[in-house]
Amino acid sequence: MNPYEGYKLYGPYVHRFSKRKIVYLRNSEDDRIYLNLSRYVMEMHLGERLSPQQDVHHVNGDKTDDRLENLEVIHRAPHNSSHAVEANARRIRNKSGQFVN
């Protein structure tokens, strides 16, 4: 089943700031939906739209690798906190323990 029945697909395009691939879909009433390519690939695979609480996670960490075998659906809250932990682990602290970057 196609979750975007009646929409025409445009793209993928590379977002000029994030460098991630995006697509947009447009129907006959000129309604538009903009999506990351990874989310579109997963929704088409599952045959249904993901809820706003669901994210598509790139298993290998490369956000430009949108192959289906590199994608998994996870809940948004744990996904965001796992990325925050990773980001903090990469940050550098000065001698007094404060982050310098």
Concise overview:
The chain is an alpha+beta fold. It has helices at residues 37-46, 76-90, and strands spanning 8-14, 21-26, 32-36, 54-58, 71-75. A hairpin with a 5-residue loop joins strand 2 and strand 3.
Describe the structure.
- This protein has 101 residues and is α+β, with helices and mostly antiparallel strands.
- It has a domain at 8-75.
- It has helices spanning 37-46, 76-90, and strands at residues 8-14, 21-26, 32-36, 54-58, 71-75.
- It is elongated and about 60 Å long.
Count of helical stretches: 2
Query: Shape, please?
Result: elongated
Contiguous low-pLDDT stretches (5 residues minimum) are: none
Widest β-sheet, arrangement of strands: 1-2-3
What's the total number of strands? 5
Helix content: 10-25%
Q: Span from first to last CA?
A: 47 Å
Mean pLDDT: 85
Oligomer: single chain
| Rg on CA atoms, Å | 17 Å
Please provide the ordered H/E string of secondary-structure elements.
EEEHEEH
Reported for the largest beta sheet, the result is: 3 strands, antiparallel
Strand content is 25-35%
